[in-house]
Design goal:
By secondary structure, this protein is of the alpha/beta class. Helix content is 41%, strand content 17%. The strands form two sheets. Strands 3-2-1-4-5-10-11 form a seven-stranded mixed sheet, with helices on both faces. Strands 7-8-6-9 form a four-stranded parallel sheet, sandwiched between helices. Helix 4 (112-123) links the parallel strand 4 (105-110) and strand 5 (128-132). Helix 1 (16-29) crosses helix 11 (290-309), helix 5 (148-169) crosses helix 6 (184-192) and helix 7 packs across helix 10. The longest helix is centred in the middle third of the chain and has 22 residues, at 148-169. The radius of gyration is 22 Å and the shape is elongated. The chain starts with a strand and ends in a 7-residue tail after the last helix. The relative contact order is 0.18. The structure holds 6-O-phosphono-beta-D-fructofuranose (F6P). The site of 6-O-phosphono-beta-D-fructofuranose (F6P) has 11 residues, from loops. It comes from Candidatus Pullichristensenella excrementigallinarum. Mg(2+) binds at residue 112.
Length: 357
């Protein structure tokens, strides 16, 4: 008999359910007897012992469903060692829940923050297998995270829709794309949606270069320009600030997000009619795309296999078109960013896309 605990932590994304289904089906189809306990709302369920014993039917009919049927929450790693409001030691509480249920392993689905805590639990002696979820695709140790391709679809659709209005009205449009501190989503959705300008955190921009690109397009007879701007995009001047100074600047900023700052400054500098569209959390929502359904199912299935083999302390990732197991210590605390010299960036530039650099 194997007793498994499962949880989804951090921001949700598409294909979380598909991944959990992949793990569960693999385990239920194996010869061994299995009990799967689902912890509710991420690490909160593990800390406060809120769980449900799941059966085969819980994993039925969820392949195509967005969100996570277990619920999720953010439990910041930086305060994980601090007692909660009632003085509870959160790490000790998680270990206690694990031991009380006599679990053989925890399956943890999450992104960057989640992996730091997963690694911590692993170093504390718990058996852990993780799966890489996030629309940001910023997890170290895997070329791809599930949720990413679905989010690319949503963000691309937003750019596609804006294209027709931008063309009708001859306007400059900014579509702000999620991605936290990295530009994978913006780069891919921007290219897929035919954006003329793509601004990502890894390539600080110069607004004069952006203005020049828009002018060049207008001189060539194009009535409109589309900018795909990452929520973490940063100007060359701001990139010179220390982290602390930049955080202060953002806290004191009158703009709801970077796109609104860019829009106002662009209008002032050039007189263009600039509008901002923010698809926001729609990028994490809806049904997973077919790629993510297959990808998450494969990762889930491989996680199931690791559990059956008793091989713990790994994230199941994807490298050079192969499913691989990556030690948690290699994943935790590292960010996978877009390399400004990567061929995709160079190819985008050859296509005439401006990065503002
Ligand atoms: O990590 C996924 C993500 O959607 C980021 O792209 C974004 O910066 C962040 O989460 C938003 O977080 P929240 O849902 O807590 O507002």
């Amino acid at each position: 008999m194997k007793r498994i605990g499962m949880l989804t932590s951090g921001g949700d994304c598409q294909a979380l359910n598909a991944a959990m289904r992949g793990v569960a089906k693999t385990l239920f189809n194996a010869k061994e007897q299995v009990e799967i306990y689902g912890f509710l709302d991420g690490y909160q369920g593990l800390i406060y012992s809120r769980f449900r014993l799941l059966n085969y039917h819980d994993f039925s009919g969820i392949l195509t469903k967005g969100g996570t049927f277990l619920g999720s929450s953010r439990t910041p790693f930086k305060t994980i060692r601090e007692p909660d409001a009632e003085g509870l030691d959160k790490v000790a509480a998680m270990k206690q829940t694990y031991n009380k249920l006599q679990l053989d392993c925890l399956v943890i689905l999450g992104g960057n923050g989640t992996h730091k805590t997963a690694h911590l639990l692993s170093t504390e002696g718990l058996n852990v297998v993780t799966l890489p979820k996030t629309i940001d695709n910023d997890l170290w140790g895997t070329d791809m995270t599930f949720g990413f391709q679905s989010a690319v679809d949503v963000a691309t659709n937003a750019i596609d829709c804006i294209h027709t209005t931008a063309a009708s009205h001859g306007r400059v449009f900014i579509v702000e794309v999620m991605g936290h501190k990295v530009g994978w989503l913006t780069l891919n959705a921007g290219m897929a949606g035919g954006a003329d300008i793509i601004l990502i955190p890894e390539i600080p921009y110069d607004l004069d270069k952006v203005v020049a690109k828009i002018r060049e397009r207008h001189e060539r007879g194009s009535r409109f320009t589309i900018l795909a701007v990452a929520e973490g995009a940063i100007s060359k001047e701001d990139a010179k600030l220390s982290k602390k100074e930049y955080r202060k600047k953002l806290e004191e900023s009158k703009y709801p997000s970077i796109s609104f700052e860019i829009a106002e400054k662009l209008t002032k500098k050039s007189g263009f009619d600039v509008r901002v569209t923010v698809p926001g959390h729609t990028q994490r929502g809806g049904s997973p795309c077919p790629y993510d359904r297959v990808f998450a199912s494969r990762l889930g299935s491989e996680a199931g296999k690791l559990i059956l083999d008793g091989s713990y302390g790994f994230m199941v990732g994807y490298k050079n078109r192969e499913i691989v197991k990556v030690p948690l210590e290699e994943v935790a605390g590292k960010l996978k960013m877009v390399d400004p010299n990567a061929s995709i960036v160079q190819e985008a530039k050859m296509l005439g896309i401006c990065f503002g650099d």
